[in-house]
Amino acid sequence: QGEYLRTLQSMANAEAWESVYMMAGQIDSANKNSDPQFARWRSEASSQLPGVYPVSENDPSFPLYVAADELIGNRNPERAWMLLQRNIAIFEKDPLRYPPQFTAWAVEQLRHARGSKDELLNKAKSMIDKMLAKEAELSPDLAANLMLTRAEIARDTRQFDRAHLEYQSIRNHPVYQKTEAGRQAMFRDVDLLVTMGNSEGAQETIE
User: For 48, which of 17, 43, 88, 153 could close a Cys bridge (C-beta 3.0–4.6 Å)?
Assistant: First the structure.
């Protein structure tokens, strides 16, 4: 299966998304014990093909794939958020089955919404913890984004030291530091240190 996954990566690099979608779907449907990454590749490919979804219309997860399409393809975050809100229970069962860009966006939206007694914020934190337990299977962009959102959740709940450590974990990682989330982590860490009254630490971070 490793060879097939490398082939899928090569096709994705060449932006041959229809081929990725077909190949990943065939392997995933033919083998019940296939690597979960095949299903994720199929999902990622479908996000690059507007109107193409890896499930039928009567599948409970269908509205979430539409939401991902609205966010990524149509740039309509309002409709994407509406669909996510209606299907949070489905989303939290397996957030990694959806396109990575949508998954990262979704948990960030739940964090912002917070919910009654921080219900949605806590759901976001729980999902992030479970996804990062599979960190080796995640793309650098997704992993770094999830860590950044987890840092922001710690900050929202006034766990400043934990937020600082999370920011540093992103910034000190040789791959994550090169992502957009890695760059944001530096600025957010500096802002946090200033807020905490540690201007010396903030200056060291900038340098």
Answer: 17
Tokens (6 digits) for 199: 């201007």
Q: Which residue has the tokens 């922001």?
A: 152
3-class secondary-structure state, position 110? helix
Give this prediction's pTM: 0.81
What DSSP state is assigned to residue 54?
Answer: S
Cβ-contact 92, 103 below 8 angstroms: no
- pLDDT, tens only, 31-73: 877 888 888 888 888 888 877 888 889 999 999 999 998 998 7
Where are the extended beta strands (E) located within the chain?
A: none
Cβ neighbours for 138, distance < 8 A, ≥ 6 positions apart: 96, 100, 131, 132, 146
Segment 64-101, tens digit of pLDDT:
999 998 998 778 999 999 999 999 999 999 999 999 99
Both tokens of residue 31?
């083998």
Find the distance separating the first CA and the last CA of the chain, reported in whole Å.
45
Distance CA 59, CA 125 (A): 26
